[in-house]
Design brief:
The chain is an alpha+beta fold. The protein has a single domain, classed as Alpha-Beta Plaits (2-Layer Sandwich), CATH 3.30.70. The chain is built from seven helices and eight strands; from the N terminus they run H-E-H-E-E-H-H-E-E-H-E-E-H-H-E. It has an eight-stranded antiparallel barrel with strand order 1-3-2-8-5-7-6-4, surrounded by four helices. Helix 2 packs antiparallel against helix 4. The radius of gyration is 24 Å and the shape is globular.
């Protein structure tokens, strides 16, 4: 340490004040790593997020709790360590639906692939994975879809709600050649009418070009104060005269959603370790 000579009392007071400020700053700095029980926090991304990945894990029978524990205690932090942005983690409200649904964010596909390679070969992950699989795989199926934000809703609404709420993941399958009609209806009418009737828009996505089989689909997420509030809100939306006219006008040349089963919906709640709640 460099030696110092204090010639005058004012100079000594100034140095002591500076030292006190340094100690205060050190005491208020957040630790580099949270405890294992703390929920994962989204990474402060160095680059804008241009690619999102929706991942759906179906838990092996009897392994749902163990799967959540692995994510809560290890996986989310290792994702963060390797440059992935934890966006949200959901459980379906239906207790018979044994899936974990989550979303990660990346700068682009190259960044995504580099992060996953680093994650998969991290000795910490290898040890966690092997230990968790000792009595059999925790999952029976893994699905993923790459998505980009729809240009009319470029930034997912990721601030947490002021009270507990539920979420709905919705995927629309468009009639061949009519996907842009679906997006235009949302851009010009649907989102505003959702807002009018208490349906909160969280995110709207297009499938990335890497998902050709998903090319006629759009995915979006809504939130509601409760599962009970969802039905009345959608009924008010569906019977709004403005929506009735919009729907009729948009389909004057035929349905823009493939029939039947054009809409897939999952009601969800955020997990305790989800950044988005």
């Amino acid at each position: 340490m460099t030696s110092m000579t204090f010639a005058r009392a004012p100079r000594l007071a100034a140095l002591i004040g500076a030292l006190a400020m340094s100690v205060l700053a050190a005491c208020t700095t957040k630790p580099a790593e949270t405890s294992a029980a703390a929920p994962a926090q989204p990474v402060a991304a160095q680059e804008p997020l241009g690619l999102y990945e929706l991942r759906i894990y179906t838990a092996a029978e009897g392994k749902m709790d163990a799967l959540h524990s692995r994510f809560r205690d290890h996986t989310t932090r290792l994702f963060e360590k390797h440059g992935m942005t934890n966006i949200a983690y959901f459980s379906p409200i239906d207790p018979a639906d044994g899936r974990l649904i989550y979303i990660l964010g990346y700068k682009d596909r190259a960044a995504r692939d580099a992060s996953w390679r680093a994650f998969a070969t991290d000795p910490a992950w290898t040890a966690v994975y092997q230990a968790s699989q000792a009595n059999g795989s925790l999952t029976s199926k893994i699905e993923n879809v790459f998505m980009t934000p729809a240009e009319y809703f470029p930034s997912p609404r990721l601030e947490n709600g002021s009270a507990p709420r539920v979420f709905e993941l919705r995927t629309y399958t468009a009639t061949p050649g009519k996907l842009e009609n679906v997006h235009n209806r949302f851009k010009n009418h649907t989102i505003d009418l959702f807002t009018k009737h208490g349906l909160t828009s969280i995110a709207y996505f297009r499938p990335d070009q890497m998902n050709p089989a998903f090319g006629n689909k759009m995915t979006y997420i809504l939130s509601f104060p409760s599962a009970e509030a969802r039905g009345p809100a959608f009924r008010a939306f569906a019977t709004d005269p403005e929506w009735v006219k919009v729907a009729a006008d948009s389909e004057k040349d035929g349905p823009i959603l493939a029939q039947p089963n054009a809409i897939a919906s999952t009601m969800m709640k955020a997990t305790d370790y989800s950044p988005l709640k």
